[in-house]
Amino acid sequence: MPDYVNWLRHASPYINSHRDRTFVVMLPGEGVEHPNFGNIVHDLVLLHSLGARLVLVHGSRPQIEARLAARGLAPRYHRDLRVTDAPTLECVIDAVGSLRIAIEARLSMDMAASPMQGARLRVAGGNLVTARPIGVVEGVDYHHTGEVRRIDRKGIGRLLDERSIVLLSPLGYSPTGEIFNLACEDVAMRAAIDLEAEKLILYGAEQGLLDASGKLVRELRPQQVPAHLQRLGNSYQAELLDAAAQACRAGVKRSHIVSYTEDGALLSELFTRTGNGTLVAQEQFEQLREAGIEDVGGLIELIRPLEEQGILVRRSREVLEREIEQFSIVEREGLIIACAALYPIADSEAGELACLAVNPEYRHGGRGDELLERVGRPARRLGLATLFVLTTRTAHWFRERGFQPSSVERLPAARASLYNFQRNSQVFEKSL
C-alpha cells in the first residue's frame, strides 16, 4: 500500500477538526520571493478546500528595500523599526500594491492537472485594518510608520462566511485618510486575536525555533518564550516567536512557526502528529503529563470505583507506587481526572495499554483519545511495533480507535502466562 494512503487516513481527524476554523497565515516578503512560494499557495488552497477559513497576511520588506535602492534612497531605522517618510511611503505603496496583485494572480490560477484546478477562489481585501501613527519616540519621528488600531472583525467575518480568502496587506488606514506602514507580524497577530482564530501560522526562514545547539524546539508554552527571546536578541526569529506568544496569551489556542523554504511544511505541521515546526500553545486548565509518586493518592481515588465494578484489575497502593512511572495522567486544577499506563512486554516488540480510566464527570471530552496518543509516543520511542489492550466493558471504544480483535494466543508469552481466564477479557491489538 502506498504511504500516502496511510498518511491520508491518519490526517482525517485533523481535517475534521480544522473544518470551519479560522486560520491566520503570515507570509513575509522573503517567502513570496522564494522559489517555494508556488507550493505554499497550493498548500493554502488545499487547506481552504478542506473547509478552513483563511486570512492571509503578507509582508514586503525585501521588496521595499529593492525600491528604495532603485531610487537611491537610504533606509532609516530606529529601534529596528523602519522610519517611513514621504518618499519611503511611495516605495512602500508601490511594493505592497505589486505584491498584492502578484498574490491575487497566483490564487486565481485554474490550470489543468495542477493543484489549483477547479478551485475557483475568491480573494477579498480592502480597508479592513485601521491604523494609528507611532509618532515620536526618543526624539525620532516615525512619520508614516504606524501600528494596528483596529481589525474590522465583522467585515472579515462576513467575507469568510462567503468562503473568500481574506488578503491583508501591511498597510493600515486612519479615520483621517492617512496611510501607514505596518509590520506584517503585528497585523497577523492582531487579526488572529480579534478574529478569535483557532491558529496563527507564521512563516519564517528556519524550520521553527532552534535552541542553542541548533535542535528544533517542537513545543513551547508562552511563559517559556522570554528566555528564548533573550537568547535570540533582535533577530527575525525573535519577532516571530514574540508574536506567537502574544497571540496565545491573548486567547489564540495555538501558534505555529514553520519554514517557507521547505516544501509541504504547512501540511506536515497541521496534519501529522509529529508536526514540522514549532508550536506555541497557551496554558490550559488541564495538563497531560507523566505521573509521579505524589499522584498515587489521586490515582487511587480515580480507579477505585472502576475496580469495585470489576472494570479494572485491582491494584494496591504498593503496586501503584512501584509502577507509577508507567502512568500518564490528565490533571485539571489539581484533580486527576484521567489516566492510562503503558507496560512494555518482556522479550517482545509489543506493549500493553492498561488502566485507561476517565472520571465519569469528564467523559466525552476527548481525554481518552489524548491519553491514547500520549501513550503511543513512548511506545514508538521504545521501538514497540504492537500495542495490546485487554478489556471487559469497552471493546467498542477501542475498536473505534483502530484496535483489531485478537486472542490470547497472539499475546507474547510473558503476558499470555499472566492472563486471567476468570475475567475472560477480550484482547485487542493495534500496529504502531
Strand content: 25-35%
CATH homologous superfamily placement of the largest domain: Acetylglutamate kinase-like
Quaternary structure: single chain
CATH topology of the largest domain: Carbamate kinase
The structural class is alpha/beta
Overall pLDDT score: 89
Roughly how many Å apart are the termini? 16 Å
SS elements, strand count: 25
Main CATH class of the largest domain = Alpha Beta
> What is the second-level CATH architecture of the largest domain?
3-Layer(aba) Sandwich
Radius of gyration based on Cα positions: 26 Å
Keyword list:
432 residues; alpha/beta; Carbamate kinase; seven-stranded mixed sheet; elongated
Description:
This protein is an alpha/beta fold. It folds into two domains: 279 residues, Carbamate kinase; 146 residues, Aminopeptidase, CATH 3.40.630. 37% of the residues lie in helices and 25% in strands. The strands form seven sheets. It has an eight-stranded mixed beta sheet with strand order 5-10-2-1-13-17-18-16, with helices on both faces. A seven-stranded mixed beta sheet has the order 19-20-21-22-23-25-24, sandwiched between helices. It has a two-stranded antiparallel ribbon with strand order 3-4. A hairpin with a 2-residue loop joins strand 20 and strand 21. Helix 8 runs antiparallel to helix 9. The longest helix is centred in the first third of the chain and has 22 residues. It is elongated.
